């Protein structure tokens, strides 16, 4: 069976990545391949990494309050590169902003303290190979059916 | 097919997509078709204990080669967890400066159940990068288990990285790591103990019988790019040595032979599992074997004969 590949990124300036690491470890323990790119990543670097790694979903952890600039930027860059990779996020994000972000195309925002198994389940149910970057969406589907 | 055309042009989305197919076992058609475009990349393996600075070194080597206008592919392999089947792939953390470079493609891979330090698919992923026009392919892998065989199967120049705190070099010797080294690097040269490790290693290598290539033992500080010029120069020397002495041909022949064998083995096993052996029949055989009426080998031969007859 195909493995789900996830990129966990920590864009922006805020200084700790404990939350991101906990999520990364939980996804690994759920059998996924997790690419962790470390602290202080630019949106460009995250999008480029996601493309090269051919991940099924990008998860961004943002605690700095910059979510209203970072998410739209990542979505825009993905579009420019014609990479159709779903984006989800976590962090301290006010409910109003959550609604706005989901409208913009962020697939899901997990608030602080979300149990990790909830994130695992969401990914398994919503991305496992269904969405895929680039041109040949077909190939991933056929792989999944195998 | 567009995908292949774009891959050959070096399009990153296409490279990434094809690598996934190769990793997932659905890419053999593509490999058949791109094979004529491969054979141009030079493969460098970097192995050593966890935390030795392999990713940092790969980053430094790649930056140096980039300045010389080469195209670089990087494959960073980390172990799959035997319990969950998942993996945490963190080598990109040390390669932040590189990922946006036009002439660099980085891919993280999990070992996915193979025993050595590399995934079974690493060489096929390297083929994809080769076809995409990379001049150098750097392959990072944790030095454990049967890494010796694995890495020799893929890499032209094999670099073993050690650090003072990774314990005594004797330990590494035992693990066979140094047996495969074409170049030995003592990284974290800023740390205490690096000079004595260097001397110890030089001494150990002086005792080894001299054949063609003399293994250089270098000190680096990967975080400062210190010693990297020297290291890249030695990679070049080793490449030249392999090419001049025709060793490279031998390596290539050995690899092709292994590729053929491995593919056949895998397919036979799959065929056996999926079509040849009927579970119920097998159960009956096992009963008989347990009653000591027949040996497992006799049954195995019988199954084989059936299979070769086209069963
Ligand atoms: N002091 C020192 N630290 C280094 C050096 N090279 C790498 N490191 C650090 O060692 C740690 C592990 O490095 P990494 O490249 O991830 O090691 P790997 O597990 O072998 O890939 C990181 O914190 C690096 O910054 C060095 O030459 N000197
Ligand atoms: Mg590493």
**Which residues of chain B sit in consecutive blocks of at least 5 with pLDDT less than 50?**
none
Following the backbone from N to C, one meets helices and strands of chain B in this order, namely HHHEHEEEHEHEHHEHEHHHH
CATH topology of chain A: Rossmann fold
Q: Which oligomerization state do the chains in this entry correspond to? A: heterodimer
Helix content of chain A: 40-55%
Give helix and strand order of chain A, one letter per element, not per position: EHEHEHEHEHH
Name the CATH superfamily assignment of chain A: Cobalamin-binding domain
> Helix count of chain B, per DSSP?
13
Give the number of DSSP strands of chain A.
Answer: 5
**CATH architecture level-2 label of the largest domain in chain B:** 3-Layer(aba) Sandwich
Helix proportion of chain B: 40-55%
Walk me through the structure.
The complex is a heterodimer of chains A (about 150) and B (about 300). Chain A has about 150 residues and is α/β, with parallel strands linked by helices. Chain A has a single domain (about 5-145), classed as Cobalamin-binding domain (Rossmann fold, 3-Layer(aba) Sandwich), CATH 3.40.50. Chain A has helices spanning about 20-30, 45-50, 65-80, 95-105, 115-125, 135-145; strands at about 5-10, 35, 55-60, 85-90, 110. Residues about 130-145 of chain A have low confidence and may be disordered. Chain B is α/β, with parallel strands linked by helices. Chain B has two domains: about 1-245, 3-Layer(aba) Sandwich (Rossmann fold), CATH 3.40.50.300; about 260-310, no CATH class. Chain B is built from 13 helices and eight strands. Chain B has helices at about 1-10, 10-25, 30-35, 55-65, 120-130, 145-155, 170-175, 175-180, 195-205, 230-245, 245-275, 280-290, 295-310; strands at about 40-50, 70-80, 85-90, 105-110, 135-140, 155-160, 185, 215-220. Chain B has a seven-stranded parallel beta sheet with strand order 4-2-5-1-6-7-8, sandwiched between helices. The mean pLDDT of chain B is about 90. The interface between A and B is large, with 40 and 34 residues. β2 (about 35) of chain A pairs parallel with β3 of chain B. Guanosine-5'-diphosphate binds near residues 50, 54 and 188 of chain B.
């Amino acid at each position: 069976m195909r493995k789900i590949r996830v990129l966990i990124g920590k864009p922006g300036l805020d200084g700790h990545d404990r939350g991101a690491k906990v999520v990364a470890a939980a996804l690994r323990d759920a059998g996924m391949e997790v690419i962790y790119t470390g602290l202080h990543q630019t949106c460009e670097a995250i999008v480029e990494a996601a493309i090269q790694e051919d991940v099924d979903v990008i998860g961004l952890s943002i605690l700095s309050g910059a979510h209203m600039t970072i998410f739209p930027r990542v979505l825009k860059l993905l579009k420019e590169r014609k990479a159709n990779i779903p984006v989800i996020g976590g962090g301290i994000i006010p409910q109003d902003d959550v609604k706005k972000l989901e409208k913009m195309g962020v697939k899901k925002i997990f608030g602080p303290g979300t149990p990790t198994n909830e994130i695992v389940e969401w990914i398994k149910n919503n991305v496992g190979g269904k969405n895929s970057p680039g041109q040949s969406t077909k190939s991933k589907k056929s792989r999944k059916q195998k | 097919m567009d995908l292949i055309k774009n891959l050959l042009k070096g399009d990153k989305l296409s490279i990434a997509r094809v690598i996934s197919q190769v990793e997932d076992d659905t890419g053999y058609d593509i490999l058949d078709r791109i094979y004529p475009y491969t054979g141009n990349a030079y493969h460098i393996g970097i192995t050593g204990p966890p935390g030795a600075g392999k990713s940092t070194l790969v980053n430094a080597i790649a930056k140096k080669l980039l300045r010389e206008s080469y195209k670089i592919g990087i494959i960073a392999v980390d172990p799959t967890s035997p319990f969950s089947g998942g993996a945490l792939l963190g080598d990109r953390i040390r390669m932040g400066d590189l990922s946006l470079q036009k002439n660099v493609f980085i891919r993280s891979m999990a070992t996915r159940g193979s025993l050595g330090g590399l995934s079974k698919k690493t060489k096929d992923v390297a083929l994809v990068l080769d076809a995409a026009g990379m001049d150098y392919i750097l392959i990072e892998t944790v030095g454990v288990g049967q890494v010796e065989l694995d890495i020799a199967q893929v890499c032209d120049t094999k670099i073993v990285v050690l650090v003072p705190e990774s314990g005594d070099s004797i330990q590494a010797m035992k693990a066979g790591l140094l047996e495969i080294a074409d170049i030995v690097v003592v990284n974290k040269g800023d740390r205490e103990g690096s000079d004595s490790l260097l001397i110890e290693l030089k001494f150990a290598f002086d005792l080894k019988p001299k054949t063609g290539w003399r293994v250089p033992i270098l000190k680096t500080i990967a975080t400062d790019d210190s010693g990297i010029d020297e290291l890249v120069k030695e990679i070049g020397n080793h490449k030249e040595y392999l090419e001049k002495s025709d060793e490279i041909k031998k390596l290539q022949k050995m690899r092709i032979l292994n590729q053929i064998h491995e593919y056949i083995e895998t397919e036979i096993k799959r065929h056996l599992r999926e079509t040849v052996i009927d579970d119920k029949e097998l159960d009956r055989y096992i009963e008989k074997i347990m009653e000591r009426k027949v040996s497992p080998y006799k049954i195995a031969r019988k199954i084989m004969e059936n299979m070769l007859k086209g069963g």
